Structure formats: C-alpha cells, structure tokens
Amino acid sequence: MSPLEMPASGWIVLAVAQAMLMLMFAPLASGFSRVLRAKIHSRKGPGILQDYRDIAKLLRRQSVAPSNAGFIFWIMPWVLIVTMLLIGMALPTVTQVSPFPISGDIITDIYLLAIFRFFFALAGIDSNSMFGGLGSSRELTLGILVEPILILTIVVVALAVGTTDLGYISHALATTPWHQPLTIILAGVICAFALFIEMGKLPFDSAEAEQELQEGPVTEYSGASLAMVKLGLGLKQLVVAQLFLAIFIPWGKAASLNADGLFAAFVILFIKLLVVFLIAGIAENTMARFRFMKIHRAIFPAFLVAVLALVFLIFGW
Amino acid sequence: MTNNTVELYSTKPQQGRIGKQYVDGVNHFFPSAIIDEEWQTENQVTITVKMTALVEVMKWLYYDQGGWLAVTFGNDERSLNGHFAVYHSLSMEGEVKSWVTVKVLVDADSQEFVSVTPTIPAAVWGEREVRDMYGLHPVGLPDERRLVLPDDWPEDLHPLRKDAMDYRQRPQPTSETETYQFDNQLGNDSNRIVPVGPLHITSDEPGHFRLFVDGEDIVDADYRMFYVHRGMEKLAETRMGYQEVAQLTDRVCGICGFTHSVGYSNTIENALSVDVPFRAKMIRTVLLEVERLHSHLLNIGLSSHFVGFDSGFMQFFRVREKTMELAELLTGARKTYGMNLIGGVRRDFLKDQRLKGIALVREVRKTFSELVDVLLATPNIESRIAGVGILAKDIARDFSPVGPLIRASGFKRDARIVHGQSLESYGDVPFELQSMENGDVQSRVMVRIGEVFDSLNIVEYGLDHLPAGAILTEGFDYVPNKFALGFTEAPRGENVHWSMTGDNQKLFRWRCRAATYANWPTLRYMLRGNTVADAPLIIGSLDPCYSCTDRVTIVDTKKKRSKTIPYKAIEQYSINRKHSPFKL
Amino acid sequence: MFKLLKTVIKTGEATKKYPFAPLEVCEDFRGKPELDAEQCLSCGACTRACPANALIMETDVKTGTRRWELSMARCIYCGRCEEVCPTKAITLSQNFELAVTRKEDLYEEAVFSLADCCQCGRPFVARKLLEYVLDTLAQSGVTGEQLKLRRQQLETCPECRRSNNMLDSENISHLRYLEEEL
Amino acid sequence: MNPLVLVLFALVCYGIAALVSLVGRKQEQDSLRIAGVISAFGGLFGMLAGLTTIVCGYGSADAAVAAGRVVNMDMLSALMVVVISIVTMAASVYSINYLKEYLGKGGWKINILFNVFAAAMTALVVSANVMVFIVFMEIISLASWLIVISDGSVSSKKAGLQYFIADHVASVLIMAAFLILALHANSYDFSAFSHNPVTGTTASLVFLLALTGFGIKAASIGFHGWLAKAYPIAPSYCSTLISCVMVKIGIYGILKVGVLFLGATQMWWGFLVLIFGALSSVLGVMYALAEHDIKRLLAYHTIENIGIILIGVGVSMIGIATHHPTLALLGLLGGLYHLLNHAVFKGLLCLGSGSIVYRMHTKDMDKMGGLGKTMPKTAITFLIGTLAICALPPLNGFVSEWFIYQSLFSLGKTGSVANLLAGPFGMVMLALTGALACMCFVKVYGICFAGAPKTEQAANTREVGPAMVTATSALAVLCIVLGIGSPWIAPYFSAIASSVLHIAPVSVANGMAVYPAVADQAILSTPVIAIALTLLTLVPATLLYAFRQRRLANRQQGDPWACGYQYEHRMTVSASGVTRPMRHMFGFIYNNRPQQSLTERYILPRLCLTTDGSQSVEDNGLDSRKVHFLCSTVALFVVLFFPFMSGVS
User: Where are the bilayer-spanning segments (chain A) (predicted)?
Assistant: First the structure.
C-alpha cells in the first residue's frame, strides 16, 4: 500500500460529487423506507418521492424556536449536514480507495459521528423541552453503548489488514484473499448491528421515539430547520449504511478514476443500498421498540460477540 | 365476618328478593341503621341509612361482604322529601350476586355528609363530583380539589341543583389561568415533569397527565381530565324526553355508546318493570359484543402502536375494519348504532344480514388468531408489556376498578357473568370469564385477546340462535319518581346508569358512570416505578375513554390514610365525631 | 416476524384509494336523509320525532309557503324521521360524504305552497296535504255533495271554522242535543 | 539565552508577585492586579524557556553534561514548564478580575500561595537532584494544602486533611523509591540514576513504589478521592493549577522513574500502566457523570484525562520493553500531546466554570441554565473547551487522542497475543471514555448554558470581567491552534518523545497532515478537516438560499411544547436526569463504588469528627490546632525522612 497523502484534485472532485449525490439521494432512501413501511402495513402509502415533497415544502416555511433556546438550537442542523457530508466525502463508495482519505480514517469518522451526536443531544437540551432533553439523554446513552462495539469490530478488521484507513481496509478486503474469514464475518455481523443502531431506526430509535418522546430532540424544530434536520438524519442513514458497505461488502468498485468503472460501481452501489435498506426496512417494521431502560441487555451481548471476533483474530481464524 | 355468618342470622331468603341477606345483615349488625328499604327489581335494593351509620354499613358491605363500589352520586330531592341525597351503589359479588344501593339523606341546610373515601377510596371521585355539582360538603374527604368543574367556574354555582341554573347558562370565567394543583406524593421538587396530553402523540385526548420523573423513572403521576365536560346529565334532565335520552346516551362515548344506551334503557325498564322481548334482548347482546370486538381490537392495535410496532397496529386495524363492517351491516351505522328504545330495539336483524354477519365473524376469527400469533411472536413485545404497569391487588380492591383492568389483576369481575341473569341475554350465551393474575399490561392484553374470541363466539351464537318474536314492547306508562340501576359490561368494564323518572315526561335525575371513571383513579399507582417510555402504554392499557364520562381527574387517597387527611378535615371530623359514632 | 411478512404478502393492499376511488357501504347504511318532496305532505311528523332538532318546519303566512329544513350539522342519522314518515318521503341514503366548504350548504330545504282559506283567504294548510286528504276521502267512497261539503269544510282555516261555529246558531244553542233527542 | 535563566526570571516574577501581594495587602485590589500581571509575565518567561528548549532542541544534547547539576532542562522538563506556564499565565490573568471576590477575605494570602505554588512546580520540573525535587514537592504539597483549606470551613478542613494525608503517603512512597535509586547509584543526581539503572526485582519494586506514589499525586483511579474533594473547594484559579498542572507532576514522575531512570525494561510495567490508565479514564468519566456539582465533575474529568495520558505512556513503555521504538515514540507522543492539550482545555474549563461560580455563587448545575444568553463569551469559550475535551475533530483533544488510538493500533499490529488484546482493549476503553465524556459535557453545557434559566439568580447573571474573558478566550484559541496546527506541532512532540526515549526522531507530519509514523496506516489533517467543514457549510446555505422565496425570517417565540398544557420550568431535564439511564445500565459500577475514602473511614473518626459534617463540629471536633499539629508532624516527618534514611544507610 502506498503512503496516504493529500488527494489529487480529481479525487477531491469525486469526493465532493459523491457527498452531494448522497445528500440528493437521502430523501429517496427515506422515501423508500416509507414505501416499504406502507407495504408492510398493508396500505397504499405515499409515493417514493414523498420525502422530497415534504422537505421542499418545509424548506419554504419559517423556522420557529422556543424563546429560551440558544444558538446551539440553530446551528445543529448545519452541523448535522456538514459532518455527515464530510464523512460522505471520505467513504470509498464507488472507488476501491477513499477519494478523500483525510477524513477517511475510521477513528476520525467515528468521532465525526460523535460531533453529530454531541450537537444533536445538546440541541435537544437547548430546546428546553422535556422530550428533547430525554431524547438527548437517550441519544448519548446509545452512543456510549454503541461506540465501543463499533470501534472494536472495525478495529478487529483493521488489525487484520493493518491499517485504519477506510479506503485501504476496503481495498484490502476487496482485492486480497481473506486470511481470517471467520473473524471478518463475525465482526461484520456485529458491526452491522451496531451501525443499524446508529442509523436510528426501530427498534433502536429511542432518541426520536415518536410514541414515547414525540421525536425527542427534533420536537421543537419546524420549517426550514426541520427540513434540514430531516435531510441530515436521512443523510446519516445513508452514510452509515455505506460505511458498512465500504468495509464489509467492498466488491464491485472502480479501481481507478474512469467514467465506465465509476458508472458500473454506481449501479452496483445502488443495488447494494437497495438491499441494505430493504433489510433494514423489514427489520424496523417487524419489531417493537426496545424498552429503553433495558436496551443495554440487547447491546452488551453484542459487545461480547465482538470480543469473540477479537479472539478469533488472535487465533487467526 | 364471612358469608357464612351472614347465613346464620339471615331470615329465610324471600322469593324474588335476591340479596335480602345483605339488608338483613345490616339490620343485624347495625340495628336501626336502616331508615327505609325499597326494592327496584328482584336483585336491586336501595336502603336509606342514617348518616351516622353510613361509613360502618359501607365498610361492612364493601370489605366484608364482597361489595364493589359501582357508583357514588348525588341527587337534589328537596322537591320530594326536603333533603339532598347521596347514593352509593354497590355491586355485591360475594356469595349472592345483587345490587345494594346505600342512600343517605343530606340535610338541606347543613349540606354536609360523611365521606366514605377514607374507608373506601373508591368513592373519592364520586364524592368530589357531588361536591362540585351539588355543593354538598363531604366531611373527611382528603382531596380538596375540584373534579368536574373547571378552575374558572364560580365558587358557589352548582349546576345539578334543581334551582341552580338553566342548562344554557354560561357563567363568566372567574380566573384567567389554570389553578389546579398537581400533586406529587412520593417525590420532591427536584423531580422533573413530563407532560403527557392533551396533545401528546399517543394521548391526543382532553386529559393532562404529568409524570414526575427522575431521569426516565416515574416517581409519581398526577392527571386531570374534564376539559370538555358536556353536561349531558343536566341536558337529559332539563331538555329531553325519555326516548331522546336513549339517543343521547348513544353519544356518551364514541366507541361504547351502545352499552350506555342499553344501560340507560335498562334503568327505565327496571324502574317501570317493562318486559323487553327476548329477541330484542338478544339483538342488544349481539350488538354489545360487536362493540366489544371493535373496541378491543382498537386497544390491542394501540398497544402495538405504543410499543412502536406500527405494523401490528395497522394489521389489527385491518381486522377491526371487518368488525366495523359487521356493525354497519347489522345496524346501518359503523358506530353510534342508535338502535335502542325503551322497551326494546328499533331495528330487526334480517336473515340475510345474519348470514353475512356470521360469515364476517368467521373471517375475523381466522385473521385475528393469525395476528395474535404474529403479535406474540414479535421481538421485544414481551419485554415491553410483561411486568409493566402493575395494578396491585390491594389497590384494585380499594378502588373498585372494572373491566379487563381488574380481571387482569386476578379478580373475577364481569357484569356479564356476575349479574348475567339480569343482563340482557347473557344468561343464555356461551362464554367464560377471562382473567389473569399478574396485573401487568401483558395480562390486560391477554384478557382482551381472550375476550375478543368470546365476543366472536357470542355474536355468532346470537346471530344463529336469534329468538323469534317482537323486538319492542310498547304501551307502558311512565310513573313519576321511580328509579333503578342499569348496568352493562362495556369493553372497558362495567357501565352503570341510574335514572329516576320525573313528573314532566322528563328524567328527574340521570347518572351515568362510564367504566373509565372507575379506572382512572388507579392509574397513578400503575405508573409509579415505571419509565417514561412505558407511560403511554400503561395509560393505553386502561383503554381509557375520555369522552365517556368526560369526568376524570385524580383520585389520590394515599394508602396511609391517617397521614393524608388535612388538618382542617380532621378538625371537622372530630367535631362530627362528637355527634356521631362513625369511625375511620 | 416471518409470520407477519407472510400475512402481509397474503393480504396485499388493504386500503382503498379513497377519495379517488369510490367506497362501498352496506345496503342499509344510514347516511344523509333525503327528502322526496313530491311524496312529502309536510305533515311535520318527522320534525316531531327528530331527537336532535335537526328537522324543523316553518310556516310563512306572507308568501303562503311552508318550509321544511334539515340541518346536516345537527342530524345524527338515527333514522327516526324515516320511521315515522307516513308517505315514505324521507329515506336515509347511502351518502356519507357530507363535508361542505360553506356553512350554508349544510342546510337542505323544501318549500311547500299552502292552500288559502276559502273564507278569509289566508294560507293555512299545505296544499298537498289537503289534496291528499280529499283524495283519500274520494277513494274511500265519499262522493258528490258530501265530498263538496267536506272540501268546503277542509278548505276553511281553523280560525274561520271556529268563528263559523260561533256564529252558527245551531251550535250556540245549548239545548241542541236535548232537542235532537227529543 | 539559556532557558534556565528564563526559568529563573519566571521564578523571580512569581516571587515578586507574591511579595507585591504581601506588601500591598492594605490596597488589596490594586496590588492583586499588579501581582496578577507580574505572575502572568512569570508564566510568559516560563513558556519562553520551555519553547526555546523545545524548538531549538537545546535540552536533548546536553543531557549527559548535566550530571552534577541541581537543575537541568531537558525536553521533558521543557514541556512541563510550558504546560505549567501556560496555565499559570492564564490563571494569573484571570485572577486580575477574579480575586475581586476574595477582597477582604484573605485574597492576598491566596495569591501568595498561588505564586509559591506555581513557582515550586516550575522549579520542581527543572530540578535534577533528589533533594531539590523533594523540597519542592513538599512546598507544593503545603502550598496547595493551604489553598484548599483557605476558606476555613469544616468541609474544606476535612478535604484538606484527606488531601494532606494522601499526598504525604504518596511522598513517602516516592521517597522510598528514590531512596532505593539513590542508594544504588550512590548519588542524588537524576543523571546518575539513568546511567546506573537498577535491574531485576528491585527495579520492579522501585517502579511499583513510584507508580503508586506518583499515581496518588496524579489522582489516578483508586487514589483519586482527594482530588474530587479538594479541587472544588479551592478558589477557581488556584484549583485550575491543582487539576491541570499539579496532577501532571505525577505523570512526569512516572515517566521520569519508569522510562528515564529504569528504562522501562519490564513489559508488564507498560501493561500495568496501560490498564491502570484505561481504568482511570473510564471510571473517572463515569464518576463524573454522576455529579451535578460542576467543580467535582471537572475534578473527575481530570482523573479521566490522566488515564488517557497514562494509556499513551503505557503503550510507550510496552514499546520500549518490546523494542519497538516507533511504537514507544507514538505512545509517548500521544501521551505528552494530550498532557499539554489537557492542561489547555481543562484550564479553559476550570476557569470557565470558575466564571460561572463567580457569578452564580453555587456549584449546583441544576440551579443554572440559560447562561449562554447572559454570559455569551464565557459560553462560547466553554463550548470550545467541551468540544476539545470530548475529543471532537478538529480540536486539540482529538489530535492527541488520535495519536494514542494509533499507538494502540500499532501496538495491536505488533502481533503478540498480549499486544493483540491490549491494543483493542485500550481503543475500546478510549472509545467508551470518549462517548461518556460526550454525554458528560453535553450535560454540563446543556444544563448550565443552554435552555432556560432555572433560577432567578441564573437569569440575572452577566458576563464576567475582561481579564477573565481574556484568559478563557486565550485558552480557547490555544485549543483551536493546537488542534488545527497539529501538522506543525506534532513534530515537536515527536522530537520530545524521541529525546526522552533516546531514539532518532521519527517523522509524523507531512505537509498539512499527520500520520502515525507509518504512512499507510492512517492520515489525519486537522487543517484540511477544518477547511472542509467550513466550506461544506455552503451546502446547507445554498439549499436554504434556493428555497428562500417568501420564507419568513426565523422567529424565536413562545414556550416549548408541553402537550398543549401550560409550560413550566420544571419541564426540562435535570443534571442527574440526563445521565440517569446510563447510571442505571452501568449500575454494577455505581453500586459497587466505595462510599467513603480511606481517610474518612480511619483518620477522621480519630479526630472525633462526626461524619455528618454539621457546623457544630467546628467547636469540638476538627479544631484547627489538632489538624495543624497533625499536618506539621507529617510534613516534618516527610521532609526529614529522606536525609535520615539515607544517612542511616
């Protein structure tokens, strides 16, 4: 592997382009989830483009904040979108290596996700609403439960390849034979679980639990700010899904920057995402929400399995 | 004292006087307590007791003889006997099942009566309502807050007094803001407040709950209802004729209106001894069960929704739609059937409807049993509902709740079984009483699931075995000042009505106690110790009906009674004690 | 989980594309009461039976008309009016789509012309009711003079009839019955 | 100029400042202001001394020459001097406004102690002789103890006593370790220790003694009780020194003994430090979460960060022992970088919280709220501090933690089973710490600064004076600079680390990016991330602009949604409410937490002190004479212990 360095301009263009595309397709992904949801409800439901219509409409509306809210409340949607875009830029989605490795270190990425979490939770408290506050508390608690698992599973894989750069991990897993297949598969399963929690879908959507907390930190958002939050949360789901794909399903991506390869990779990515969102959609619609105060009982065992993956790594399985 | 002792002293049971033992027992243990004894039907008796003996008599009937307080209400009988009256109706569910109504006359000048709440917590709402509506002061009642009247209502205007006000009168508000004091009995000021309702995503109903929380844990809860009190009782007494009230009672509740309508019709039929034809009785029975079907399916669906299992919610609603269709087929309306007249029903079931109905029932049964399997197999459902929102048995015994709520706490209370012989055709249809022991949300859901199957069986049986004959008895005369209880087992529990006929082709007094009215007071105890996430589910597991009575606020008699009575009340209490031997 | 998916696949789509597709209701559905004004005699039985006071009748002497009005805002679709109508002029239709954009559209009315009193010329009874009674009489075998006399009687308003009676010496005599008997 | 001369200047400045405070105690306000400025200059000189050493690479060359001298400035000392000086400087500037609070309440005494304290610490880290070291250590102990008990309340006396005892137990252990070393080297000079390292079991014994002793001083977990009690009581600008700097002396000592004197020969030492550090970090932050007293909370965060630094040190020691110089360098680099960063952001947070307490007169967070509106500058700087301590990119906390992560990863990569376990273990613990810190500081910022004021007092606060704002702002800027400037700063740390480890410097930066020595392992460029984050704000901006037609301007009005009911101020989360679910889930940690410290259990009862802390205690129980007597006995014993023991031998 060649040393990591500042990407060339062509790669930066690709990075920006893919981040923008993700932003553009985020409502499509959430729209698809809604369609799937309607199908499982045995109802007709809105069209797949409904989220575009919702967001476009909300963007034209005034934002209102509670009188006591501070500036955190206003900047949260911005932070949300910006951090997710930065992660989006770094993901090796259509290319074998990361187009923007500067933010493509797994540790950096996990901490970028933490920025989102920090501001999301803070905005919940800042909005002064009890529901926002409780949602914040839940979001942070989930972070505490999930982050170690995420780190551990990814590190296990990273150790198997010897680098923490997302692009290189992806590249190595795609192009070289797996020496520790069991480790990687086990880590992949647990990582999928952790990232599913990170996506904030049922049964782990505790922070925004509609029936319990009236969408938690999002409660007080309205108009254009709400549109941005929705967009950001949709983007987050897409980014998180692709983070998983980048590491554990790394095949079918372009080796270099040429139009044909990128297009083919794009199509393959689209199919991969379709499958991921299909599975996630089925999972979220066939389960009840976890009882929040017992959620750790579901997550602690996952951590133990992640430890098992580490043991496998040590044994070289 | 057990039931056996009752038999020792009781005289020979009189023919057609079910529950005579209880009256004899009162006479035996509290000699000369009873001033008057009136029998309304063969199993309904009203005894007028001396105020001084009220608490003891009530205590004996309630705790020693297996009585449950069905309803407490007031009546302005000054035009009849110069007094106000307070009634406590008890459903006696000991060895002999009957109804005993204990009545006390309240002096029109002192306007005070002895509160039984410190002894029988179940009376608290009734007594608070009597205070609001009649201005009678319950001596010893710990809760000084209003129940029904809004905060901005004038202090001395008591709507149900006959000389108080016209039903159209709207007094000027006396305050700008809400002054209701919410009560955190177990926690302190460091507890934060989670508001739930009136416009919460799972509780978009006119009730305001506040959960006093420490983090996510509910330390205590308080709530207030009656935001849209519709004044139906006043309306019925002053504006409507007997038959119109049957239509009005259909609208007490959007879901279980028919049970109210039947309950009301029964009061008049009982009071005037009108015989309802068997066919009409069976039609009523079938429709009562149809109502239970859609109500239970609604609640089971909502339980899924509250735990985030919206797919289950939608699927149960899909089945529920079939039961709505069934109602539409049989009555011409999806809800608010408008079928009852005093003396029977207005509309017959035709052969074709019955056949279609039976087919629908079978379809629902099949789909529903599939969905129950799905629900019970859904991940996390059990962990969400098992052990959550437990209604302890002692609380249940003290507060006389009804319906699936109490059946899930191990008490076998169901008016259809207990008083089945005097309730429409329930004596003739096959079904069992569903009850569970754990008292948690899961038990309530399971009880409801069992009852759905029962209801399906009853509906099918009823449609299949509809007796021949007329559907309406006509041509009876209305006699003034006759009164009786009417009761039905609504989906949420027993609905109790009490009517007294008037001398102007209008009711003198109509009292309607919806099931939820009896259930609300226990909610606080169920919420304690659970988490915010469970609150909607627990509230929902009551299957609360806000419009039903439109009368809901808290009941808060703490278990340690002596501690909760405010000083002033104790003072008054001790003054009264001088004159009267009643004890706490 | 899989059971649910199985059910879902088996069920397909349970919802209808209402309001873009029609929604069927049962045959005996109690929807909006429809008045067949042709049939209606404006007898007023429905207005008396209506528990919700949704039906009213008003007589306008000036224009010589009687107005029947149904307020959809008050109607509770109980069907009492249908039950009591002697001519089956009111039926509860299957129509339940009753939302309107203007409040005035909630009201339905029918106007019936009144017959004038043959003496004082003031309107007093619905023409159709009068015709109906006369037709009934005719069909029940009343003919000729008798019918004419009855017509005259019926076309007289109650007030005129009362004053007629007062003026009629036969009626005034308190000995009339006694005389007849004698 | 010789950096040691600059250090001398700094010490002189502190001395003058102390003198000014003493002499000018009649015109307290003016003299304290002047003293503040003078101490700030002292800090400046100290910083210059450290920086010149580091930038010119002055110290590394003549480490050997320094034998026989009582003072010496090597790269490590230089770093320590910088750290001490930065914080002292900020605290001094801060004190210009802050001490107004203590006018007439012995402010001048506190300021004297402050300067003595700062001077002693500066002197300690440049001392190259055991005797000097111990004397300054004792001065530090006494000065800080006096600061802690300065407000004279019973609780402060209790806390002070506990601190004093813990500190002196540590001193004894440290001296025991030094004694062994000195006996072995037959010299009191530090340079002699490193030239004649002890070996075998003795080395392990020395190491354990030193680790325990300095561990207590560093307030690492298990030995942390005193910090959480003493820190909140001391005046904020002094407690900043205690929590940001004094505990670092412990790290310095562990490094000195473990790496420099003993050469970190045993691999298990490194593992011990690593595990110790990991536990410190996780438990520290967990205990912090349970607090609603802002000062205690920050005290526990010190424990957490000490743990993080120790993880780096541990990795480094494993690297040395297993002969992986790059690994050793990476670990030490991360640890030392974090040592500086912690001083900066923690200094910022301590001073910031000081500002709040200065206005609020309470440390209970539940009484605050809405301070972001009334104290906007403090709020912004505090927010930057919280972002930094939560290790959010691109601020300084992230950079150093990133290096520690990378060192742990490299540790995992080295292959042995133990390393394969230890690397991921450390990373998981770090991740857990990061997530917990995130929660903790969301809570702190959210409850104190965000939302609505929860009391009248909070609503009536106003911004603190310019000097206090300047101090916090400067530290906030430093947080950003140390973060974004990492590609230019990290090489210096690499140099420091390599000088400590006596290996050739390894390149860790390339242009605008840093990498963990191995260029294909990872890359991080905080400046580029900062630029990217800034530029990406154009995206939402464009989006909002594109849909702007007829959209009304943002509006702030009304109460939050209370389900249609009247909003009440209690409808927000409380400080304990935020963390409640977490404390429930990790109940096994909280429930098994010892309720009393050892001092509370064994020593305070001997002083006839009732534990309920009631005010009557003042008269009969903990009377000052008893305490002072006890303390002076202990101090005397400690100071004389060493010469006596060495003399005996």
Answer: 12-36, 69-90, 110-128, 140-161, 181-197, 233-251, 263-283, 295-315
